[in-house]
Structures are given as C-alpha cells and as structure tokens.
Design goal:
13 helices, 371 residues
Length: 371
Amino acid sequence: MLRDLEHPGQLFQHLGPNWYATVMGTAIVANAGATLPLHIAGLHTFAICVWAFSLLLLVLVLTARGIHLVRHRNQARAHLFDPAVAPFYGCPPMALLAVGAGTALVGKSVLGTNAALAIDWVLWGAGTVLGLLVAVALPYLMITKHDLAPGTTTTTLLLPIVAPMVSAATGPFLIPHLPPGQPRETMLLGCYAMFGLSLLATMVILPGVWSRLIYHKVGPLLMTPTLWLVLGPLGQSTTAVNSLGDSCCGATDKRLEDGLQVFAVIYGVPVMGFAFLWLALAAAVTLQAFLNHMPFAMTWWSFTFPVGTCVTGIAGLARHTGLKVYIWLAVLLYLLLLATWLITATRTLLGVLRGTLFLPPHMAQAHRDHP
C-alpha cells in the first residue's frame, strides 16, 4: 500500500483540486439515477448508497485538501498560478453542489426531509458563493497572470465557469421551500442569471476549443478524456432549464410560468442534439486513444460527471415532452455512466493504494512510461 511514495509527505504535497472530480463523478451517479424517468427495482437503494459514498468522499477530499493547503502552501500557490492546474479549481464548488443535490434527492430517505434540506442549503450556498468567486477569479488570473499562448485553449477552461450552471440546475430543489412571493421569485431569477452567466461564458470559450482541436489536435493521450468536458455545460444547462421550469410554478406569475416551461423544451432539444454530436466525436477520438494505449490518469473522471449531466438533462426533456425516446436515451446514457464510473473508480482506488496518484508530475509520468 502506497509503496511508490518516497516519503509520507508526498501523500498531500501534490494533491490538486482535480481530486474533487472523484466526488462530482460519484455524486452524479446517484443524482442521475434518482431522476431517471423509469422505475427500476433497486435503483433508489443503489442511489442512496452511492450518495452516501459521495458524501464520505467529500469529507475525505475536503480533509486532504485542507492538510495540503496548510502544510504545502507554496505548492498550493503554484497550482493556482499554473495555467494547466488552475482551471480545476472549478471542481470544488461543483462537488459541494452535486453532493447537496443528492442529499435533497435521495439523502432525505435516510436523514429526513428537514435535515436533508439543511445540509443542501449549506452545500448549495457554499458551492454557489465559491463557484461565483472562481468564475471571476480564474478568468482574472488567465488575463493578468497566466502565461498563455494563442491556440492553447483547452476544454479544462470550461471548469471555472460551469459551476454557476450547476448552481442554477440544483437551486430548484430549494425554491419550493422558500416563502411564496419575493423570496421564491428572487431565487428563481437568480438561478436563471447564473444559467446565463455560465452559458454565455461557455459560448465564448467553445470556439477557441474547436480551433485548437482543428489546428493543434488533442495533445497528449492523457488529455483525451477532457474532450468529454464539453458535455458538462450542455447537459447541465438543459438540466437547469427543465428543473427551473418545474420549480417556477408558484414562484412567479402564470404567464411567465408557461413561457419558462416552453423555453425548457425549445432550448433543451437542440442543445442535446449538439451534445450527442459531441458525444459521438469524443467517443471516436477516445477509442483511437485507447487503441494507442492511453494510460490511466485522473483525467478519466471526465468520463463521468459530464455524461451524468446529459442523463439528467434528457430526463428533464422526457418529463416535459412525454417522448419515450428520451426515456430510453436517458437509460442508455446512464448505463454508459455506470460503466465509466466503475472502471474509473476502480483504477483510482488502485492508484491510491499503490501511491502512484500522489507522485509529483515528473515521477508520475515516469511511472506511466515504465510501470
């Protein structure tokens, strides 16, 4: 166990913010399972177990990162000013929000409604504040501090600006529990504001991502899974408009309610169409990478959360359209999510036990080249 570490201090020294992806990728399995528009025996129990595991993971990663920030401040500062690592600071707020949503969806079966809502309020509030901070701070660092060259826009730059979209998608769970009138409408329109913030920022970044892929290709094999990150804002935005459409009843006037529910379908259908185009493209490139012996890395967690957001987005369209094709698409994507989560979680556990995932970047690369 941990046999590849030279000394115990390495356990936390290089523990970056990307570790929160393990929490996100696990929580979305529970959340997507809870929102599937099809009754499957045992699925609710399975979702509860996965949610509980994601809550445990959140506590462990928060503790480990806390130790990292206290004991290795210089390394933490280096991560913040490293343009390859800094975008992953978008993961902590999304981890908080994903676990909070799972608590509201399935955790209430264990904790009770009042306790579950209290936890969700805390996690949603913390995740939203942190997500908005990151959405401003990371682009600021890119503009003023990071040394970036033309043609270096990668999909990881989406991470800092997707967190507000996750807030917009998970906030609707809390709207019905606010007092009627101004509080509910403020929360509703605040979520739509975060939806717009994240959506427009995504539209700014995606052309740069496409240009880089066309002219500079994907890059190292280890970065191939990050292509799947594009699915995140697509699936999460569709989830947001459908969830907000469900929660707008009683939060605003009837005319606006009808318009928001129609908007959920008008927006969600074409966006999920593009999501399937990108899914096919990312799958083809990933298959080629596997044929070229792509080694395991933490980037594999990119296969989980983005796919999960597509499941919840399609589930929302199934609710609002009643089309069976959306039900079966959601189920098929959920099976893909389960497969990628099981494989990635298993490989991560092996890497933790061997200590390879805690090694400095140069040693980790040497280990991958000569396992």
